[in-house]
UniProtKB/TrEMBL annotation:
<feature type="compositionally biased region" description="Low complexity">
    <location>
        <begin position="59"/>
        <end position="72"/>
    </location>
</feature>
<dbReference type="GO" id="GO:0005829">
    <property type="term" value="C:cytosol"/>
</dbReference>
<feature type="domain" description="TRAM">
    <location>
        <begin position="499"/>
        <end position="574"/>
    </location>
</feature>
<dbReference type="InterPro" id="IPR020612">
    <property type="entry name" value="Methylthiotransferase_CS"/>
</dbReference>
<dbReference type="InterPro" id="IPR023404">
    <property type="entry name" value="rSAM_horseshoe"/>
</dbReference>
<dbReference type="GO" id="GO:0060255">
    <property type="term" value="P:regulation of macromolecule metabolic process"/>
</dbReference>
<feature type="region of interest" description="Disordered">
    <location>
        <begin position="34"/>
        <end position="75"/>
    </location>
</feature>
<protein>
    <recommendedName>
        <fullName>CDK5RAP1-like protein</fullName>
    </recommendedName>
</protein>
<dbReference type="InterPro" id="IPR058240">
    <property type="entry name" value="rSAM_sf"/>
</dbReference>
<feature type="domain" description="Radical SAM core">
    <location>
        <begin position="238"/>
        <end position="496"/>
    </location>
</feature>
<dbReference type="InterPro" id="IPR006463">
    <property type="entry name" value="MiaB_methiolase"/>
</dbReference>
<dbReference type="Pfam" id="PF04055">
    <property type="entry name" value="Radical_SAM"/>
</dbReference>
<dbReference type="InterPro" id="IPR038135">
    <property type="entry name" value="Methylthiotransferase_N_sf"/>
</dbReference>
<keyword id="KW-0479">Metal-binding</keyword>
<dbReference type="InterPro" id="IPR013848">
    <property type="entry name" value="Methylthiotransferase_N"/>
</dbReference>
<dbReference type="InterPro" id="IPR007197">
    <property type="entry name" value="rSAM"/>
</dbReference>
<dbReference type="GO" id="GO:0080090">
    <property type="term" value="P:regulation of primary metabolic process"/>
</dbReference>
Length: 597
């Protein structure tokens, strides 16, 4: 141990505990006592007579902790007590079922990348799958119910398959938030589940799958303080898409009183800037035209991996919260911040659009807002989850701001980025929410005029502060009514917002065919609104006579002619580039300003 730093000791111990958990993994029947010695009596131990010692992990960790992109996690194929061939998939076919948010899609791509490099194949047909992995969501009760329903269907498939394949039964695994929340309880309730893998344990999937061949369930739900999968290039599930998601941080320290995320995804940690920039460069080389930076709290990003920035970066040492916002946790110091990351990422390719989600309103310093305003490839679109428009409810939610502070931020953002598209999340019927409080939320929605809103009826989650300390006192029917009212007020307001865009010429990144009509194409404008337009050849550039078809990944200028509450409809005018379009806009704005002086 001499000469080993404290964080490294922690990492070593984590790896040690993690691996010993695997060694002592109990048979399904003893899962109730998952961490007891009873597990070590299972047949698994006979295959592992010489389990790893603490020294194995110290030796392995000390090899990897210092490089920018390294993790303190041992590569699975270097674990000394498992034969490499047992970790190989030998062409077994894996089917992925993905539920929940975009983070889950990205996590699936990471899990798939790990299995892909371990000899597994991917299938999109459940009937030919050897393994079905379900990426799960726990945010609301309804999300989990969908997964239980899915497991009911898969039970039938598994039974059929075990009859037809005689002896190589279908393996079913639960990954992600629900795995983390319920742990081995999943296997107790649904005996046909073979694998339960939490969000920080995907590197362990090859070993876990190898383990399931013994007929026992494999469970790894250890959360990590440093896992960001920085060194894993996700293999994109939708390879045809011209946009991609890049994970920049994981976890959440905010502890909003209603939210399960801090418990299922663990503490906030950021991926080193250099590894993110590297991934964005690779995506740009592959022709990707839009990258969305992903995380539970993207704008709390803080990369402390490089020692020269760990104590502070330029003027930004302590957290600069937006005015009127506070956190439940102590101020954090040092590291490269979200503005530093946005700066670097947006310089990779000026033709690549940059978006980010999901941010928290507390972390919007002017550096970030200025950068969004200045860089033509950072989209003028900000998700600003409000959750409620009533101060008592916001306090009970532990959001750390008042409606007044939130509105001041909205005005401030609109001062700096006048044409910004704002979106938000709202919860209807949170504990103690009165009709008056609900109407204040309706009022906030009307005042801000969001371009998009996600609204959810409150769903009580175990472990959270609200579960322990507050009463879920709004009846379900009332939650549903308020949810409906918020949704219809949003639709009413957004229709006006969309109709105000009729006549504008907008830059649209083409995604592909419209789902509604074979004659139309669909794409997104800068504010992330869907734009549908006729599929026809248009000039190569503004004043060209040469016509060119419009294909996915192209930037076209579209004249908006019609709007509903959901989409804009338009006529394509000509092909362009992001830089040309923005130059032209700046010039016309200059003319506009000059003529009004
Ligand atoms: N009930 C309802 N909605 C919730 N959200 C998070 N937790 C809950 C819950 N328990 C919503 C919040 C958050 C979004 C991702 O999900 O609005 O911003
Ligand atoms: Fe949940 Fe709040 Fe963290 Fe968002 S910021 S993930 S709502 S705890």
């Amino acid at each position: 141990m001499i000469g080993t730093s404290r964080p490294m000791i922690k990492a070593c111990l984590n790896s040690f505990i993690s691996a010993h958990r695997h060694v002592k993994k109990p048979a399904i029947s003893s899962l109730r006592y998952a961490t007891t010695d009873e597990g070590s009596k299972s047949s698994r131990t006979s295959r592992l007579p010489n389990g790893p010692s603490l020294e194995h992990f110290i030796a392995n960790s000390s090899k990897t902790t210092n490089s920018a992109t390294s993790q303190t996690h041992d590569p699975i194929d270097k674990i000394p007590y498992i034969q490499k061939s047992a970790l190989h998939g030998h062409g077994k076919k894996v089917y992925f079922d993905v539920y929940g948010c975009q983070m889950n899609v990205n996590d699936t791509e990471i899990a798939w990348s790990i299995l892909d490099s371990n000899g597994y194949q991917r299938t999109t047909d459940t009937t030919e799958a050897d393994v079905i992995l379900i990426m799960t969501c726990s945010i609301r009760e309804g999300a989990e119910q969908k997964i239980w329903n899915r497991l009911n269907q898969l039970r039938v498939l598994k039974r059929k398959k075990s009859v037809s394949t005689k002896g190589s039964p279908l393996k079913i695994g639960i990954l992600g938030c629900m795995a983390e929340r319920l742990k081995s309880k999943i296997v107790e309730r649904e005996k046909m589940v073979d694998l339960v893998c939490g969000p920080d344990a995907y590197r362990d999937l090859p070993r876990m799958l190898a383990d399931t061949s013994s007929g026992q369930a494999s469970v790894n739900v250890l959360l990590s303080l440093d896992e960001t999968y920085a060194d894993i290039m996700p293999v994109r599930l939708n390879a045809d898409s011209c946009s991609a998601f890049v994970s920049i941080m994981r976890g959440c320290d905010n502890m909003c009183s209603y939210c399960i995320v801090p418990f299922t995804r663990g503490r906030e940690r950021s991926r080193p800037i250099d590894s993110i920039v590297e991934e964005v460069k690779i995506l740009s080389d592959k022709g990707i035209k839009e990258v969305t930076l992903l995380g539970q709290n993207v704008n709390s990003y803080r990369d402390t991996s490089e020692s020269q920035y760990a104590g502070g970066f330029e003027s930004d040492s302590a957290t600069h919260l937006s005015a009127g916002f506070k956190t439940i946790y102590k101020p954090k110091f040092g590291g490269r911040r979200f503005s530093n990351l946005l700066d670097k990422v947006s310089q990779v390719d000026p033709e690549m659009r940059i978006r980010f989600t999901s941010p928290h309103p507390k972390d919007f310093p002017d550096e970030v807002l200025q950068l969004i305003q200045e860089r033509s490839n950072i989209c003028n679109q900000i998700h600003l989850p409000a959750q409620s428009g009533n101060n008592e409810v916001l306090m009970a939610m532990r959001r750390g701001y008042t409606v007044e502070a939130y509105m001041d931020l909205v005005y401030h953002i609109r001062d700096i980025i006048p044409d910004v598209a704002l979106s938000s999340d709202f919860i209807a019927g949170f504990c103690g929410e009165t009709e008056k409080a609900h109407l204040e939320t309706v009022n906030l929605m009307r005042q801000v005029k969001y371009s998009f809103v996600y609204c959810f009826p409150y769903s009580m989650r175990g472990k959270t502060h609200a579960y322990h300390r507050l009463t879920d006192d709004v009846p379900e029917a009332e939650k549903a009514r308020r949810h409906m009212e918020l949704s219809s007020v949003f639709r009413e307001e957004v229709l006006k917002l969309n109709q105000a865009q009729i006549g504008q010429q907008q830059l649209v990144l083409v995604e592909g065919k419209s789902k509604r009509s074979v004659h139309d194409l669909a794409g997104r404008n800068d504010g992330n609104k869907k734009v549908i337009f006729t599929n026809t050849e248009v000039p190569c550039e503004i004043s060209s006579k040469e016509l060119k078809p419009v294909t996915p990944g192209d930037y076209v200028v579209v004249q908006i002619v019609r709007a509903t509450s959901q989409v804009l409809h338009g006529v394509p005018l000509y092909h362009t580039t992001l830089q040309d379009f923005s130059k032209r806009q700046t010039t016309s704005q200059r003319y506009c300003n000059a003529s009004t002086i």
